[in-house]
Amino acid sequence: MRREVGDLLFVGQPDGYLVAVDLNNQGREVWRWQTGAGLGVGNMISYAIDGEQYVAVLSGGIGLEYNTAGGDSLWAFKLGGTVPQPAAFALPSVRQPDAAAVAGSTVGNTVLLAKTSATSAESNNQNAMFPQNMTVPPQLGQ
Question: What is the pLDDT of residue 104?
Fold first, then answer.
């Protein structure tokens, strides 16, 4: 990351990216790093050692939104550092890729949030969605 001044906002994304945006330039992205596992909310810290500023973040593969790989990692970055991104991690192209897709249409389909099945009485699983994958044909002429 090449930056010598502050006013950066770091955002962790569920697909594993840690993104830095410039608050003085309408939130323009200035840097991104793939950690290989989802990043939760509020798990970043900024600190200084001998006048050098660092940002640290925990990434964890616990199979949430994007069904990222297992394993937890602690990443620490020095502002102005020049470590290159390692080889790309293989990320799924769809949410929960191991779930069978349900054929849908553009009329009458319902996606249930916070439920693990259509008949489940509980609706408090914040990471659940039923069906997990639904294919819907495009609407032409609208």
Answer: 73
- In this predicted structure, the answer to whether residue 11 has a pLDDT above a threshold of 80 is yes
Facing residues of 74 across strands?
Answer: 58
Find the distance separating the first CA and the last CA of the chain, reported in whole Å. 44
- Quote the distance between the C-alpha of residue 32 and its chain's center: 12
Where are any strands of DSSP class E within 1-142?
Answer: 8-12, 17-22, 28-34, 39-49, 52-61, 71-78, 101-103, 112-113, 129-130, 133-135
Give the tens place of pLDDT for each residue, 35-75: 877 786 667 888 999 999 899 998 876 544 444 555 678 88
How buried is residue 75: exposed, middle or buried, by Cβ count under 10 Å (0-12/13-18/19+)?
A: middle
Do residues 87 and 30 touch, judged by C-beta distance below 8 A? no
| Cα–Cα dist 77/133, whole Å | 35
